Amino acid sequence: MIANRPRGTNDFLPGETEKWQYVENLLRELCREFGYQEIRTPIFEETQLFQRGVGDTTDIVQKEMYTFNDMGQRSITLRPENTASVVRAYIENKLYGALQPVKLYYMGPMFRYERPQAGRYRQFHQFGVECFGAASPEADAEVIALAWEFYHRLGLKNLQLHLNSVGCPNCRPAHRKALQDFLWPHLSELCPTCQSRFEKNPMRILDCKSPVCQAITKDVPTTIDCLCDDCRDNFEAVCRYLDAAGIKYAINYCLVRGLDYYTNTAFEIIMEEIGAQSAICGGGRYNGLMQELGGTPTPGVGFALGMERIFAALAAQNIEVPIETGRDVFVAAIDETADLAAFSFLMQLRKMGIKAEKDILGRSLKAQMKYADKFKVKYTVLLGGAELAAGQVILRNMATSEQQPIALSDAVEFLVKEIK
Asked: Is residue 222 in a domain?
């Protein structure tokens, strides 16, 4: 029996991977423009990092983590998200001693044991940014602007930015009480998970996907209703910065995000055309996370977006990613006597940065020319025993079908000038 890939995972084949590279390169370039540097963290961490960082009342920790004991009987978890890992790396590597703010980005695979469906996989890929050391609302707006600009450069349209404030430790208790007072008469109607959240973290109930729970929480007191003066001023300032950047947004009073570490700003970018999993980006501020994971209090703000959902969004709007899979030059050996010389010529071209190809299956010259057509090459170089004896090659322009002899010693330089 042939082995199949694990459920909820994907193979990305040639033709697709070039599209991924294009998007990844666009993200890297954008981060350079915004002053963000790349960080790479382990794919697995100690389990308690995510229990403390993500929150033990979240669906991620309660239901979705890939957790196991290693050979040393340590509890290890494949990372379900990367913010907690980046915060851990910031503390462990003393990045608080670097020039502030510290602006980082990452991309790579994450793992959650979810029911596979369109837009949700058990191994998925995320890109994200984290900005540490800046408490200003301008930092929130910059992070949002980076995400917004990325989608703009991809050409995506009909996007909605949803914005909310989830408050701070000073005003959360007021919202918690108002929420519990509202939900108490309906406690028995909530799903078992939300019943357990009622005392531990009732705000998590707003993130429940159960239709029954969503109906019950439709008119609950909002976090905006309960904000303290500082949080209200901060939220209004974030809105002003977004206005200054020309970024439109809608206030979503039910937006709380699925992670416990958020404070103040929470946001999502929505594209309804891709179906139920319409959020293609999400993030916000998490000023308490650094201290929760053992560091000194340090403000932080960031976002993450799913790479797979980017391609679902592009497909939904029929946007083609520009990719290059062709070659510049094909080197054809007319006969066996010229095979080594043709290979040498091929390698000289590649050393000069020319995308060059040669047959390595011993095809006939006619078959080689058909093979060359598949690469959409600009030039084919024909080299045989007679050409070697004359110290030249035959250069064929594939667009015009014109052929001309050229000195072997000049051929590489000529092709480099023509192509570059």
From this structure: no
Q: Are residues 291 and 394 in the same domain?
A: no
For 56, residues 6+ apart whose C-beta sits below 8 A from its C-beta are: 62
Do residues 351 and 244 share a domain? no
Joined together, the tokens standing for residue 103 give 């602006």
Q: Are 183 and 216 in contact (CB under 8 A)?
A: yes
For residues 409 and 260, membership in a common domain is answered with: no
234 occurs within a structural domain:
yes
* Cis ω for the linkage preceding 101 (within 30 of 0): yes
**Contact criterion met (CB below 8 Å) for 141 and 245:** yes
Cβ atoms 393, 380 nearer than 8 A: no
| Amino acid occupying residue 89 | A
Determine the Cα–Cα distance for residues 28 and 161; give it in Å rounded to an integer: 22
Q: Is the pLDDT of residue 222 over 90?
A: no
340 and 263 in one domain?
no
Domain boundary among 282, 316, 350: 316
Specify the 3-state DSSP secondary structure of 366. helix
**Residue 153 pLDDT level (bands cut at 50, 70, 90):** very high
DSSP summary character for residue 64: I
pLDDT of 223 higher than 70: yes
pLDDT for 106 beyond 90? yes
Sheet containing strand 392-397, strands side by side: 356-358, 329-333, 379-383, 392-397, 403-407
Report helix, strand or coil for 254.
coil
Final residue of a structural domain among 251, 286, 316: 316
This prediction has a pTM of 0.87
What pLDDT score does 277 carry? Answer: 65
Does the pLDDT of residue 184 top 60, yes or no? Answer: yes
Are 160 and 29 contained in the same domain? yes
Asked if residue 73 is part of any domain, the answer here is: yes
> What digits encode the pLDDT tens for the residues 3-47?
899 999 999 999 999 999 999 999 999 999 999 999 999 999 999
Instruction: Specify the number of domains making up the chain.
Output: 2
Contact 134, 299 (CB under 8 A): yes
Q: Which residue has the higher pLDDT, 41 or 326?
A: 41
Q: In terms of residue numbers, what domain contains 391? A: 329-419
In terms of domains, do 235 and 357 share one? no
Residue 278, pLDDT > 70, answer yes
Which residue would you say has higher pLDDT here, 79 or 115? 79
What are the CB-based long-range contacts (under 8 Å, 24+) for 382-386?
382/332, 382/334, 383/331, 383/332, 383/333, 383/334, 383/338, 383/341, 383/342, 383/345, 383/408, 384/333, 384/334, 384/335, 384/337, 384/338, 385/334, 385/335, 385/337, 385/338, 386/334
